[in-house]
Specification:
The complex is a heterodimer.
Chain A: E1 2-5, E2 19-22, H1 27-37, E3 48-52, E4 55-56, E5 72-77
Parallel strand pairs in A: 1-5
Antiparallel strand pairs in A: 1-2, 3-4, 3-5
Chain B: H1 3-14, E1 16-18, H2 20-28, E2 33-36, H3 40-44, E3 52-53, H4 59-66, E4 74-77, H5 83-93, E5 99-102, H6 105-111, H7 124-129, H8 131-134, H9 140-149, E6 151-155, H10 161-170, E7 175-179, H11 183-191, E8 197-200, H12 205-218, E9 222-228, E10 231-237, H13 245-248, H14 261-264, H15 270-287, E11 296-301, E12 306-311, H16 333-338
Parallel strand pairs in B: 1-5, 2-3, 2-4, 4-5, 6-7, 6-8, 8-9
Antiparallel strand pairs in B: 9-10, 10-11, 11-12
Helix pairs in contact in B: 10-15, 11-12
The chains are: A alpha+beta, B alpha/beta.
The complex binds zinc ion.
């Protein structure tokens, strides 16, 4: 299991939860798991950056990046608010 | 014989003294730490270039900061060589191994026609106003003068810009520009104005992308801050050193997926926290101190009162700051951000 931090812009799609637990061996599996439980995320997730242990997965193996159990994932969409 | 004379004579016999010519040779060789032990007004009227100013009354408490290595040669001077003689004696007692006093002092130095540094130091009212800064070794008089000469441009005069401008003005930033509303039309003229730092607190994506592109073309670091509901983000985009906003978010989310604070709300105190953090980064950049948030995005969650940090990396394929840029002049940013294009 992996803890996934949900940013405020995505909380309406996750019933207000700030953190979710997801299952999967890769980043893609984790996101699929989340989207199957919270289908409204589907539109948003493609625009969110994904950080595994503080590293942007684009600099790792992207969606194929392997995820070790117990690690922390942060989803980060752009926010323009000022 | 008055006791002062006697004491001075005794001290001068115990310490080593150098004449102006020999002192200049050593200074030109870059060897000694040169310490001016005179008072502020004397220092302001001119001093030996490269010297550190420590008034005699503060010598014991401040010398270690200026000369941490007791084996390194220290050359002290005052106006005539008397106060510096006593100061030399003190430093020897503190364990400094190689201390000398400039015989004849600064008066003799000037008489020889040697170089004198005259700086537009802080006047008395400014010295009083920025006294708390002057006490910080990393800022001090030189740093405060830097701040007074610095130029910071704030984008957005809303939630983030207000607290940021308050603290930047209080810190003595010499020129503060504030741009609100439609920066897009006049950006070229405004941004070409030689700013040292841009503080981006805009409330919309078109302005954010515009500021980013302009900052790269004009080589100006941007302190980025953004807020929504209970969460804030802060980072520093420094052209040529770290990633830019487009490296982080190549494509803006479609408007319907990215509500603004006006649409989604924001906790009233959050801009105070994030705007103040932006001011902090801007001051560090202007002073050239500390470790700015370059390549690091700081996340603040007001509900859990937690800070998180993620790493940001440069994208070699970035269309603006990458190796082969494809965007080299202003585009239609409103259209760019309105597009329902696919994410990159
Ligand atoms: Zn870039």
């Amino acid at each position: 299991m992996t803890r996934v931090r949900i940013p405020p812009t995505l909380r309406e799609q996750t019933g207000g939860q700030r953190e979710l637990v997801a299952e999967g061996d890769t980043v893609r599996d984790l996101l699929d798991d989340l989207m199957s439980r919270f289908p409204a995320l589907e539109d948003q997730l493609p625009f969110a950056n994904v950080y595994l242990e503080g590293e942007d997965v684009r600099t790792l193996d992207g969606l194929d990046t392997e995820v070790n159990p117990g690690s922390t994932v942060i989803l980060l969409p752009a926010m323009a608010g000022g | 014989m008055p006791s002062y004379r006697k004491l001075l004579q005794q001290v001068r016999a115990e310490i080593s003294e150098l004449d102006a010519e020999r002192a200049r040779e050593l200074i030109d060789g870059g060897e000694p730490v040169v310490v001016d032990v005179r008072e502020q007004d004397e220092w302001d009227e001119g001093h030996i270039p490269g010297a550190v100013h420590i008034p005699r009354g503060h010598l014991e408490s401040r010398i270690e900061r200026a000369a941490p290595d007791p084996s390194r040669r220290v050359l002290l001077y005052c106006s005539a060589g008397n106060r510096s003689a006593f100061a030399a004696k003190t430093l020897e007692e503190m364990g400094y191994e190689d201390v000398a006093s400039l015989a004849g002092g600064f008066t003799d130095w000037k008489r020889n026609g040697y170089p004198v540094e005259l700086q537009s130091g802080l006047d008395a009212p400014r010295r009083a106003r920025y006294s708390r800064h002057l006490l910080i070794p990393e800022v001090g008089e030189q740093g405060q003068l830097k701040l007074l000469e610095s130029k910071v441009l704030l984008i957005g005069a809303g939630g983030l810009g207000s607290p940021a401008s308050l603290y930047l003005a209080a810190a003595g930033v010499g020129r503060l520009g504030i741009v609100d509303a439609d920066v897009v039309d006049e950006s070229e003229r405004i941004l070409a104005d030689g700013w040292d730092v841009i503080v981006d607190g805009a409330d919309n994506f078109p302005t954010r992308y515009l500021v980013n592109d302009a900052s790269i073309w004009h080589d100006i670091p941007v302190v980025h801050g953004s807020i929504y509901r209970f969460e804030g983000q802060v980072t520093v985009f420094k052209p040529g050193v770290g990633p830019c906003y487009r490296c982080l978010f190549p494509t803006p989310p479609p408007p319907e997926l990215a509500p603004s604070c006006a649409e989604g709300g924001v906790l009233g105190v959050l801009p105070g926290v994030i705007g103040s953090l932006q001011a902090n980064e801007a001051l560090k950049l202007a002073l050239g101190i500390g470790e700015p948030l370059i390549g690091r995005l700081l996340l603040f969650d007001a509900l859990s009162a937690e800070f998180n940090e993620v790493k940001l990396r440069r994208d070699p394929d970035c269309p603006v700051c990458g190796e082969h840029p494809t965007i080299t002049e202003y585009i239609d940013y409103v259209q760019f951000c309105a597009g329902t294009r696919e994410p990159a």
